[in-house]
Amino acid sequence: MIGGIDLFIVVFFIVGVFVVGVYFKKFIHTSEDFFLAGRRLGWWVIGMSIIGTNIGSYDYVGGAGAAYDVGIAQANYEWIGAIPAMVISALLFVPYYWRAGAYTVPEYLGKRYSQPVRVIEALLWGTFLICCLAIFFWASGLMINTYIGWPIWLGILLTAVIVGIYTVTGGLTAVAMTDVIQLAIMLVGGFAVAIIGFHEVGGWSGLVERITVEHPDHFRLFLPLSHETYPWLGMIFGLGLVLSPAWWCCHQAIIQRTLGARSEWDAKAGMLSAAFLKTLVPLLYVLPGLFVLALATEPLADKDQALPWAIKNLLPAGLAGLVFAAFLAAIFSSVDSTLNSAVTIWTRDIYQNFIVRKASDRHYLNFGRGLTLIFVVVGALLAEPLTTSFSGIYLAMQTLLTIFQGPTLATVLLGIMWARATRWGGLFGLVGGVACSTILHMTDMNFLYVAWWSFVAAMIINALVSLLTKPEPTEKLRGLVYGLVMKDEHIQNSLSSRVEGGE
Amino acid sequence: MEDTKPKVEKGLSPLEVMGLFWIALGIIMVIAVYAPPTMIGKMTNLIAGIILLAIGLLAYLKGRSGRASRETKED
Lengths: 503, 75
Hints:
Chain A is mainly α. Chain A has 21 helices and no strands.
């Protein structure tokens, strides 16, 4: 357990993030300020906030454990599993979302296909994000319990109060700005761990020499097809072609930052700068996992103990506190982003769309704030029952994600790339894809393959049904489909005026 | 906000606030040099502290100059 100067650093971090987050309340005047930071975010804030949101506690603990177990193949989750998809997202998806003037990905799908598609997507993402919130709360409680010794419920309560208050008051502005602060701490902490780790093992060559004697596969980026968790084929098709693009092109918490950009250029540049930062992320947890493997004299009983071992045995006082603050930063940035995105979806796509359609802007702002508080309480209460019903935090996340990631990507991809895709194609493709992934899950198939086949099923169903139904009118598709934006000057102008008019 | 549309707010800009936070954390890390018994431990804390101080100072100064130029334009 940490104490002394380390505990002081952690307490300073917690109090500081809270104060900074609440400070951004002064920038919130309208619902657009609350949900989209007033569409004022610059590219560097977007880029850093995306990475801050993306790195969670499961990346740190689970990722370091996996690196200890399988080696640098784990880094593929950041490289193959992110960077190409982020570039595609920046150049192909983000411009359409941004130009549609949407607040959420389901809102875009509602414009492109139909209200039922929007509602199904909103319910899927809205439910998923609340589940994520509960999982993050549990991870936070567990981490505080492990390192500081406080009861789990107290850790959950602390996280809920701190993150809840600044998210309620400061909305996406507070979320994005605190993400920036937190990412800087994570990177500095990771850099310092790398320095001390390399010093202990004798540099990169020393690290390789120590590990390859007993673990020759630990420096292979791709593992054999027979590998239980990371078969290379599944990594390329399931992770590289489906799960990763689905995450980076369709995940509300990721995309929401780009929707808050002050210009289309900032939205795209933000995602591209995040792709650059992503190359550094393995520094944070893959390297520590390898350092532990090289330095630990006895094999660890539980691979997820790799990072706690590193903190206890490798890091000096002071740096241990900073790295623990970086853990907390990873959790806080995930919790606040998930919270804000869940509230945006439930407010825009469900409440404003069905329940109270034409209220004042102040009404939706207050509703969003109230809903944030409610979700904080729900997430905290669900934390234990939801997480303990799965065999681990990482598995819980993956299982929930895989069910609808593939079908979502297929629906968005055809929606943007193929003008012939119809409202019925979108609806049947999405529902059929989710049904397919649910059935495949029951067969105990590797989740990477489940993602791939549910994506393929959704694509085929969408295409077949679209060809059998009446095409959508061109007027409806303007600005939402590739070709109708890029090649027609008239449409470009009409889109610009639409965005400027706040539609 | 120097990286936002001109929507004028009084008080510190976001960059200044972030900068102050990083500076404070950097100072604490530099002070923490006393804690570890080994030289490598002391050096690592010092490097981490200096990096945080540098990031914080840059952010604070950029935020302050952005705010000053906005206030000049207003006047």
